[in-house]
UniProtKB/TrEMBL annotation:
GO terms for molecular function: efflux transmembrane transporter activity. The keyword Coiled coil applies. It comes from Thermotoga petrophila (strain ATCC BAA-488 / DSM 13995 / JCM 10881 / RKU-1). The keyword Calcium does not apply. This is Outer membrane protein-like protein.
Length: 432
């Protein structure tokens, strides 16, 4: 039987592939990432309404306001159709360009339509200022900013998870590929040893080893098949490992946790709502002031709507405004983050201890390998047992490297929990 030459795990190769290429590819194929992107864009757009002084928005009002004969209504907007046909109506393009502290400032350009001859009459330009008295501008702004920060952190957290999974896939691909090679060679040696065995007890022991090795091999092959990331090879692995093996833990700070900042803003909004818990019981009042440039006159409008009876919605809303739910959520969030960080530090410490144990085991395996070299050369050790001893050492080296990779992953998880953007952190370093 030819001697097995086991040189893998010992020769590093560095070529063009890298973890960020695979990461970008995984981002493109992640529905969770694109969902987070859409939510972030929507939250960002809503937040701009409060950060930008200039908020142009164009709308069109179509209808007729007044008292009709066929249906008595005051202040009704719409197109009225009677037995005589469509009554006169108006079109009013409205441009709202400023929204500050709940006041909407804009221009309207009312155009009346005569349905007898379908003629149009431009009635001049009007300056419009309106506000709903129940609008809580500060509360709405705080909640909108909180939603923006929360979606920003959610997007970053999703990216971090995909990055860590990409690294995990690269490390797992290498581990299981090499594991399968070792197990396949071990299985071949054990089968050859079994074919030469004559003692029944030795045969039974070898059969048990073969069955155990086959089970482990099947599990490794299955694990390798489940890895979703494509285009992984040893070159990518070696470059990724070299890039990440020097990663160190940054300063422990939660300043990058936008989700905590979002809860802090929600707490402020909650305090304001608690003081105005009665607001749901008040009527909807809208005041508008229009200045007609053509006639040089002010027009004042008042909108009133009062709910007299409901199914308890107002009471429920009032009770909700009195609660301190966000404060409790904030405390729980901080507690969970601290527990997660502590757990990661324990995991890191345990892996470092396991690494030290594995190093001691490898030292023993190395000494045993040197002894087996001498025994094999002198003919006191069969070729199968000699090869198995070499496989033990190579497998031990692989397990040690896998522990080192696990340590890298735990460090990345710790950095992610702190709220850092992993891609930015690894490329630019800790900016604290």
């Amino acid at each position: 039987m030819k001697r097995f030459f086991l040189v893998f795990l010992l020769v590093p190769v560095f070529l063009v592939g890298n973890v960020f290429d695979l990461f970008e590819e995984n981002l493109k194929n992640s529905s969770g990432y694109w969902s987070s992107v859409e939510k972030f864009k929507e939250a960002q757009l809503n937040y701009k309404r409060y950060t930008n002084f200039w908020n142009p928005e164009i709308s069109v009002s179509l209808g007729k306001t007044g008292i009709t004969i066929t249906e008595v209504s005051l202040g009704k907007t719409g197109i009225t159709i009677t037995e005589d046909g469509i009554s006169d109506f108006s079109i009013s393009p409205i441009v709202n360009f400023v929204n500050i502290y709940g006041f909407e400032l804009g221009l309207s350009f009312p155009i009346s339509v005569n349905t007898d001859d379908w003629s149009f009459n431009f009635e001049g330009t009007q300056l419009s200022v309106s506000r709903n008295l129940k609008t809580e501008y500060t509360v709405d702004k705080l909640k909108t900013e909180a939603n923006y920060l929360s979606s920003k952190y959610s997007l970053k957290s999703t990216k971090n998870s995909i990055f860590i999974q990409t690294v995990q896939d690269i490390f797992d691909w290498y581990y299981y590929t090499k594991k399968i090679e070792i197990l396949s060679q071990r299985l071949q040696v054990l089968n050859e040893k079994l074919s030469k065995a004559k003692d029944d007890d030795e045969k039974k022991a070898l059969e048990k080893q073969i069955l155990s090795t086959e089970q482990t091999l099947r599990s490794a092959e299955y694990s390798l098949q489940t890895i979703q990331t494509k285009n992984i090879d040893e070159e990518v692995y070696q470059k990724t490992r070299k890039f990440l093996e020097g990663v160190t833990l940054p300063a422990t700070t939660l300043e990058y946790r936008e989700d905590l900042k979002a809860l802090e803003l929600q707490k402020k909004a909650e305090e304001i709502e608690k003081k105005t818990w009665f607001l749901p019981y008040l009527p909807e009042l809208t005041f508008s002031f229009n200045y007609d440039f053509e006639d040089s006159e002010w027009l004042i409008g008042i909108g009133f709507q009062m709910t007299l009876w409901d199914f308890g919605e107002r009471k429920l809303e009032a009770e909700k405004r009195k609660s301190q739910l966000v404060s409790l959520e904030y405390q729980e969030k901080v507690r969970n983050i601290e527990n997660s960080l502590s757990q990661e530090l324990v995991n890191i410490a345990n892996l470092e201890s396991q690494l030290r144990q594995k190093e001691i085991e490898l030292e023993d395996l190395e000494e045993s390998s040197k002894t087996n070299d001498q025994l094999f050369r002198k003919g006191f050790l069969s070729e199968e047992d000699y090869t198995l001893s070499k496989l033990d050492y190579v497998e031990g080296t692989l397990e040690k490297e896998n522990l080192e990779n696990s340590l890298i992953l735990e460090k990345l998880k710790y950095i992610s929990i702190l709220g850092y953007d992993l891609e930015k952190f690894l490329k630019e370093g800790d900016q604290n």
